[in-house]
Amino acid sequence: MNGSPEVDRVSASDEVTLATDCGPAPTNLGVALLFAAGVDLTYATVRSTLEGRLPRVRRLRQRLVRTPPGCGRPVWVDDAGFDLAHHLSEVSLPTPPARSPDAPGDGDRRLLEVVADLVTAPLPRHRPLWAARWVTGWAPDRAALVLVMHHALADGIGGLAVLAALSDGGADPEDKVFPKPPMARGSLARAAHRDRVTAWRRLPSRVRAGRQGLSELAGSRPPALAARTTLNRATGRRRRLTSVSVALAPLVDLAHRRHGTVNDIVPTAVSGAVGTVSRRRGEHLQELMVSVPISARRSASVGELGNQTGVVVLPVAMEPDRNARLDLISALSASRRGPHRGSSSMPMGLAFRALAALGVFRFFIDHQRLVHTFVTNVRGPTASMSFAGHDVVTVVPFAVTPGNVGVSFQVLSYAGQLVVTVVADPDVVGEQDLLTSRLQEELAYLVCRIVDPGASEPARRPLPAR
User: Fold this and answer.
1) For residue 101, how far is the Cα from the chain centroid?
2) Quick check: 305 and 161 in contact, CB under 8 A?
3) Which end of the chain is more exposed for a tag (fewer CB within 10 A), N or C?
4) pLDDT tens per residue, range 105-140
5) What is the pTM of this model?
6) Each residue of 290-319: pLDDT tens digit?
7) Distance separating alpha carbons of residues 374 and 289, to the nearest angstrom
8) Rounded to an integer, what distance in angstroms lies between the CA atom of residue 300 and that of residue 158?
C-alpha cells in the first residue's frame, strides 16, 4: 500500500524511479498496439473512445505533486485542468512511391522510428505522466496506437492493467467523481506520521525482507564484476527499435520438455545473439550478466499501479552448445526462485536512493559493471484484445534503460505470439540489424532443433560488411 488509505502516495519504489531519472533518455516504457484494418479506424474515433475510457484509469488523469516538508513522499492528485490534447497526437507517414514499394519489414521499421521518438521524449512532470500517438501510413491498411508511460506510473504488470481497462470490455469505475480536491497540508502531515509509525513497527520484517532481497539479487555466489565490453558505454538520448516475433506454443513446449520456463529460453537466445556481436568486435565474453526483473505480483488492477519489481542477475555462461546453455540457465533460474518474489527491490532501492541523494547516481550507472544487458519478460493476454471494435493483432513492448547498457530486450507474450523488442543506442550498437537477425535465428534454432532434433538448422545469413 502506498501510504495511508486516504492518501494516494507514491511508493518507495516509485520515488526511487523518479529520483534516478536523471540521464539523457527518460525512463519511459510502453506498447504499440497494431491494427490490421487500421484505415477503418479514424483518429476521431480513437480520440473519442480513449476520452470516454480515461475515467477507468484514474492515474491517467492525475499528476504528481511534491508535498511540503514533513508531509511524506509525493502524492498523486487529480488534474483539474486535464486536457487529452496534451497527451494524444496523430501522425500520418507519407505513403512510399508505387515505383519503390516497402521492402519486407520496412513498414515496421518506419513505425518503430515513430515509437523511438515518442518513448525518448521526456514527459512533462506538471502533467499526468503518459502520452499516446495514433500512427497511420507506415504500411498499407495498417495503423497503430502507441502508448508511453513513465516508469513511476506503472511497471510492466501495471501497464497490462491499464491496457485491459482501456480496451473493449474494460470495467467502468464505481467512483466517478472528478476532480477530487487535494488533501490539506495538515491531513498530509498526519497521514505521513502514521506511515512513519507503521514503518517502525514493520522494521524487523523489513530487515528480513532485505536479507531475502540480497539473496534474490545476487544468489549464493560471491559478487563479481561484469567483464568489460564495448557494448557497455554511456548511452545518449537516441534509441533505435527492432523486433522479432515467434509462435509462443513451441517455446512453451520446449520449456516444459526441459523442466524450465519461457523466461529461461529468451536469455538463452539473447546470449547467443550478443555473443555473435561481441565476437565480431574481437571480444570473447565468458559470461553475460543479464538483469531479469522479477515482479512481486502476478497481476495488477488500475488501483494498484506503480512498481513492485525486484531484479535477478543471471550470469549466463557463453556456452557454444545451445542445449547446454539452456540447461545451465534453467538450473540457475530454478535455484533463484523463492517464495518472496521481487524482494530485491528493497536493498536495490536503498542503494539507488543513497546514490541519488549524493548526486552520483548518473555517474554510477554510466560506469557500472554489474550487468551487461536487461531482459524483461511480461506475460500478456492469451486472447486478442480489441479497441473501438477493432482487433489488436500484435502488441510490441518497449522500454528505455539508462546508463551504460547499450542494448536491452523487452519481451511480451500476446495471443499466441512472443514479441521481443531490441532497444539499443545506435551510437553504441551499430550492429543492431545483425543482432536482431541472430536473435531470430537463435529462437528458431531452439524450437526446430531442440523440440525436433531431426529438423534442419535454419539457414544463417552471411554477416553484413562492417
Assistant:
1) 33
2) yes
3) C
4) 567 899 999 999 999 999 999 999 999 999 999 888
5) 0.87
6) 988 876 666 667 777 777 677 788 888 888
7) 9
8) 6
Using one digit for the tens of pLDDT, what is the confidence trace for 198-218? 777 766 666 565 556 556 556
Contact between residue 43 and residue 383 where contact means Cβ atoms under 8 Å apart = no
Alpha-carbon distances, residue 136 vs 7, 93, 189 (angstroms): 41, 6, 49
Residues forming beta bridges with residue 413, ordered by sequence position:
379, 418
Place of cell 565480431: 280
Q: Please give the Cα distance from 356 to 366 (Å, whole number).
A: 13
Question: Both ends of the chain: CA-CA distance in Å?
Answer: 52
* pLDDT tens sequence across 316-372: 888 888 888 888 888 877 776 655 555 566 666 777 778 888 888 889 999 999 999
Residue appearing with cell numbers 525518448? 120
Residue 289 makes CB contacts below 8 A (sequence gap 6+) with: 226, 313, 314, 315, 316, 370, 371, 372, 373
The amino acid occupying position 131 is: A
Q: How many CA atoms lie within 13 A of 297 on its CB side?
A: 16
31: its cell numbers: 506498447
Q: Tell me, what amino acid is at 256?
A: H
Query: Under the phi-then-psi rule, with left for phi > 0, alpha for psi from -120 to 50, and beta for the rest, what region is 261?
Result: beta
pLDDT of the residue at 452:
54
Which of 157, 163, 156, 107 is closest to 132 using CA atoms?
163
